[in-house]
Structure formats: C-alpha cells, structure tokens
User: What shape does this take?
Amino acid sequence: MSRADATADGDEITLLAETFRLLGDPTRLRILIACLGGPMAVGAIAEAVGASQTLVSHHLRLLRAARLVRGEKQARHVLYALTDAHVSQMLRDMIDHAREDDHEPAAPMPQPEGMTR
Assistant: This one.
C-alpha cells in the first residue's frame, strides 16, 4: 500500500472511527464472526452467539447501517451475510493477529508536547 492509499479525509476518518466503535462490542463482533461461514438466519446467529433473537436483530440493524452485513430475503426468512470480501478479510486478519504468539505489549507511542496520559 502506498502512502497515498493510506490517507483519509475527515469524513472517511469519522466513518472508520464509527465502524471500529461498532466492532468494539463483543456481541456484534461475534455476530460478524458467525457470518464468516456464510449467510445465516437471525435464529441461527442468535444460537451461535448465545444471545436472544431480539438482541441479535438490534445489532444486525446497526451492522447493516454500517454496511458490514447485508440481508437477503429467501422464502420467509432473511439471511444475513458479510457485505463483501473486504469485511471478511479484515475479520480474518484480526483473528489471525489476535492468535499470533507475540503478545508482548507494544512500546508506548510518543506523545506530542504538552499532552499527558
């Protein structure tokens, strides 16, 4: 990735921050990981993540709004799947990262002058 590819404007930064905020919820993350295996109905997702259908439906609504999942009506059910390969690959990369053997904490980042933790 070139440096130009790694830049983002203010609106993109805001969208990214909101997306990562959504991913910070363990239930929503479990829902996305459950959908890695392919399209699933709400009931199957609820069973896979150990949450109520009502709670899963609420989270799916937020994830759809963030374009992380899509719903497709089939017969009397809506099947939910990850929106695209970008979402799938990001999740797989983060799972791989979490499983890496090197779990040493990173060195603290330098703080700009005048800022304290």
User: Anything to note?
Assistant: DSSP finds five helices and three strands in the chain. The first helix runs from residue 10 to 23.
